[in-house]
């Protein structure tokens, strides 16, 4: 029996949920960093943050969907669980790395602005 379709659906539900929750948290808490970059212009801050959130959703959900192309055939329930766990862990790790990279870059940029 081929469990690929079921695996795809479960994987996408889990990953899209994680991406949306993380995106909302980053959007809510990221206003402080963006506000610092635009020197207190709250309207511009909100617009930039919304564009960042949209880009975040498009890149991450698009990447998650693209990973479906390279999956092997899932023929057992055990393999279904393993596949979902491994593929989810990879995407969650990528999200984590990108998040910390963004914080590092923004922090360095803000420090550069303050020191100049």
UniProtKB/TrEMBL annotation:
The transmembrane residues are: 6-27, 48-69, 89-110
Q: Which domain of life is it from?
A: Bacteria
Q: Which UniProt keywords apply?
A: Membrane, Transmembrane, Transmembrane helix
Q: What is this protein called?
A: DUF3784 domain-containing protein
Which species does the entry assign this protein to? Answer: Flavobacterium rakeshii
């Amino acid at each position: 029996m081929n469990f690929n379709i079921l695996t795809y659906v479960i994987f996408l539900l889990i990953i899209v949920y994680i991406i949306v929750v993380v995106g909302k948290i980053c959007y809510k808490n990221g206003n402080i960093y963006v506000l610092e970059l635009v020197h207190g212009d709250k309207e511009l801050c909100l617009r930039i943050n919304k564009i960042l959130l949209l880009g975040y959703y498009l890149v991450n959900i698009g990447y998650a969907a693209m990973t479906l192309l390279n999956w092997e055939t899932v023929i057992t329930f055990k393999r279904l669980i393993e596949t979902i766990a491994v593929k989810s862990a990879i995407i969650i790790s990528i999200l984590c790395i990108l998040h910390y990279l963004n914080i590092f870059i923004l922090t360095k940029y803000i420090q550069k602005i303050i020191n100049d």
